[in-house]
Design a protein that fits this description.
127 residues; mainly alpha; 3 helices; elongated
Length: 127
């Protein structure tokens, strides 16, 4: 496999965020599917808390190395506000699904904008 020409941490971070968003969609779908399962504990995705180190580095002007981003992969986990056996609140899950969909759309828009800027740079502003 050839090495990528452009090592871009922005694309890497957007990719991680999109992975987290996709996993969150799966978690919400799983929660809704198991709403009537006795003893079920809701699941969520741990991503934002894992990115706190990266966020603080960005505030200090440090861009993370692309290779380091692999350590911040999102993870499925029991939802922090969930206790086994508590009923799944369908209205909250649907609201979370809507919020996540908007977040996913914003990430895709940001990725498209970034790729457009890279394309312009590669083509030296020519179309």
């Amino acid at each position: 496999m050839a090495a990528p020409i452009i090592h871009d941490s922005t694309i890497g971070m957007l990719s991680l965020a999109l992975n987290a968003s996709n996993m969150r969609q799966q978690a919400i779908a799983n929660n809704i599917a198991n709403a009537n399962t006795p003893g079920y504990q809701r699941i969520g995705v741990n991503f934002e808390s894992r990115m706190s180190e990266v966020k603080s580095g960005l505030r200090d002007g440090r861009t993370p190395a692309l290779a380091d981003l692999q350590y911040y992969q999102p993870l499925f986990e029991a939802a922090p506000d969930s206790i086994a056996g508590d009923p799944v609140q369908l209205d909250m899950e649907v609201a979370g699904l809507s919020e996540n969909t908007l977040h996913q759309q914003a990430l895709i828009k940001a990725l498209n904008k970034h790729l457009s800027i890279l394309s312009t740079a590669i083509n030296e502003g020519k179309r």
